[in-house]
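task queued by scheduler; priority normal; single chain, no ligands, no partner chains; default sampling; output format set to structure tokens
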Amino acid sequence: MRKLLPVAALLLVLFVSASYAQEETEAEPGAAVRDRAGSDAALLLPQSGVGGSPKIALSKDDQKQTELKIEVEGCEELRGYYSAPIGASKSHKHALVFSFTSGGSDIAEELTDVARLSSGHDPIIFVSVKYVREKEVGEGFYLIEDMVEDDKLWEACDWLLAKALTDQPVDPTRCFLLGISGGEDKAGDWARHLWASDPDKFPFRARLFHGPTFEKDMEGLPPVPAIFSVTGFDVDMLKQFGTDDTPRRMANKLRAAGIPAQYHEYGQLDDIGLFMNDERWVQIHRAAINTLGGPGPEEYPPDEKRYLGAPTDADKLPWTEHKDPWANEVIAMATAEDWKGAWERGNGIMNDKNVKSKEKRDLKDFMKEFEKYVKDELERLDKSLQLSIKNDFWPNTWHHQRMKAMHKAFKDESWYSKKGYAATLETIKTFGPAQRDKARKEKMFEAVKLELAGKRDEAKKIYETLVRDKSEDGGVSEWPHAAEYRLSWWDKVE
């Protein structure tokens, strides 16, 4: 997701906060939560499309899982679970995700899967609870039943959350509630309970849902942002059952009520990612967590459908493999356009005093060749971008993306600072096409603002206008495509 321009962000924050505060006073319960939700709307919206990328491997950290007894009367059979990043700084406060999964005997495995949300970019602490049992009712047949009534489960969850906030290095402003793998309804019900009990102390910054089941009405919902992810297979399954109760429908209802919501629908039957091996949902919800009070979302390449130009032989790297295994690592990173990683890996080995000089001989020769290629390639890319600037036309996307990646990798090198590459990249941000893109972006903000105000017809007209202009400037602008995506899941809200 992209952050808003400062002025547009301020307008959206003020607007959303006002929409939440209809006929309310500052002293009304939950006012602080509503105000923060308004600020978070400016970070999460507009949604530029389906989050994540199937082309990027998921990075994650190592976690240690701990089981603990729940010290609440009547909840002795329940079990709580922590999962915390190994080696993470205890002096730093981390985000926390309280996850409701199936709540059964597979909870440890399910929590391990959920913990993929954590990475070195933004280490996360997790809490979950086992709340159902399997009761055999016949040979090979089991009945799944709750161990306790909901009111006792909420007591247990309250105790678990309070204990985690006390025992773990948690940032209390970055707590998130996740419903997944059958736990969506429980997550929604506990959120309603918490909001009804004490709105001022509602602990969660956002609610995250992955899967086809979830809450089905608006009554008693906390006004914090909601992020929905669902596979195309799940959507098709719901259609077969003839139900209108879908995450898509709920996301539309929330937006119409002024509550920030994202909806991510991806994948079809032939490329479905099931719960235990899907990475896309992790990328989607990780981005929301990283965005809200964190270091910001990890970068993913733009959709290649919006790329201008096509890769040619001139864009191919001069190496595919090397006799030196370290050089092959560098080549693999460069092939993935991770020029910073490639440069750091190669130099890291070169500077490693534990590796003998003769063992680094082949890598040393390769790194000289690598640096020469980078310098020549930057000259070629700069000429390409300068030609676009001269003709007031968006640059070749492949060239622009590679030059940005190389800038990130080599900007601190003395030879790089003597060139004008950084200035070229800055000019691309402000020349004619960029100014026109800024206008499209502001239109998108205006549509979101109107939609959250309940003025859906006005908002829809702006979205439709943006879509009609999506071929302008080579069709690379993300905002018409974002508007098209929004309309793709637009439902009438009665």
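post-processing summary
- The longest strand covers residues 170-180.
- The radius of gyration is 25 Å.
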